[in-house]
Amino acid sequence: MCLVREPCPGCGAPHGRPAVSAALLRFSLSRVGDAVLVAFADAPIGVDVEQRPSAGRAVEVAQILQRTERAEL
């Protein structure tokens, strides 16, 4: 197995998402700071890891959110 590029969904050129050469194995990778998340599956998969915002940023953003969004935050 090796890493390859899938065809681009827009133009078909080989600069799409990274993939594993084994046709039945898909993967997704996300990283931020020291955190890395890698997932493998037999179907298209996507993962995302994000850095937790500071308390000050959360207060700043909360001012523009809906009431239900503020409650969740």
TrEMBL record:
This is Uncharacterized protein. InterPro entries: 4-PPantetheinyl_Trfase_dom_sf. The lineage of its organism: Bacteria, Bacillati, Actinomycetota, Actinomycetes, Kitasatosporales.
